[in-house]
Amino acid sequence: MSINWNILSDQINISNNIVLSTHINPDGDGLGSELAMFYYLKSIGKKCRIINISNHSEKYNFIDKDSNIEVYNPSEHSYWIKNCDCALIFDIGNHSRLGEISKILSDSRHVKKFSIDHHPSNSRFFDVNFLDIAAPATGFLVWKFFKSINLHLDLKIAEPLYAALITDTGSFRYNSTSPDSHLMAKEILETGLKPYDVFSKIYEQRTISQVRLMGSVIDSLEIFDEFASIKISSKMMYDCQAKLEDVDGFTDFARSIKGVEVSFMISELSDNKFRINFRSRGKYIINDIAEHYGGGGHKFAAGATVNGSSFTEIELNILKMLKEKKESLCQ
Ligand SMILES: [Mn+2]
User: Fold this and answer.
1) How confident is the model at residue 1 (pLDDT cuts 50, 70, 90)?
2) Would you call 160 helix, strand, or coil by DSSP?
3) What's the 28 CA to ligand 1 centre distance in angstroms?
4) What is 208-330's CATH topology?
């Protein structure tokens, strides 16, 4: 898919104040994309700020060396955002994942809204969608933009881009990894970046509470034919003194079991509020199930937040939908 990046560079040229943001509970791709763009915009003298709706995992602080990322707070940010020239929103999927920031943006006629994304979406919320669902990461699109303006990558910009690329491709394991993903990696490594420095900072930082939580999550594992479910209650979180970010990667782990095609994790967020994460090996598409719950995502990796239910009810419902998928495949 070819994107006309001139629209973005023209907008950047005429903008003085630019806000950058990504989805709630930012991941390596969202953070890496906004930081790489931020460093570029700063280097050409733009006034810009990264304002996210929620905090990110500490393990990503190494790509935000000068602590440029701010977490949204109405009194400090709403006026500034409202009066920006343009907003660059990364990896968003659905604009509702911007939380309150989306309301400020939609209320302001002044701010030009741009989405740079690889999630399937047909949102009219943005003035322009730079969308390529075949892109392995949003960071890949940021890299494409940099290539379109002939930007010479330096280590500072390369590091967040590499973090974005490896987190979304599962370190080049997923089928979304294209020949061009490796071309991007090649150009990044040519800046002198050491892959293990980035990999170890993201993937080898397990805390004791995370390992304890993993123990109880494995205890909760249930296998229903090709489907695996795991559960995290508030009590488990409390007992292990775990934080929300500690649940990262469990759904992938459950999918890695021999014979499992789809794994899903149900985690209790607060009273009657649950987060569901889905992972599929590829036999079954699961983002339609996430959409059924008001969420979304990629075909084989998706999630949703559900209100007012119970573990059992959610689990039974999901299993019912998965069994229907299985039956329709058998016919
Ligand atoms: Mn992404």
Assistant:
1) low
2) helix
3) 8
4) Diaminopimelate Epimerase; Chain A, domain 1 (3.10.310)
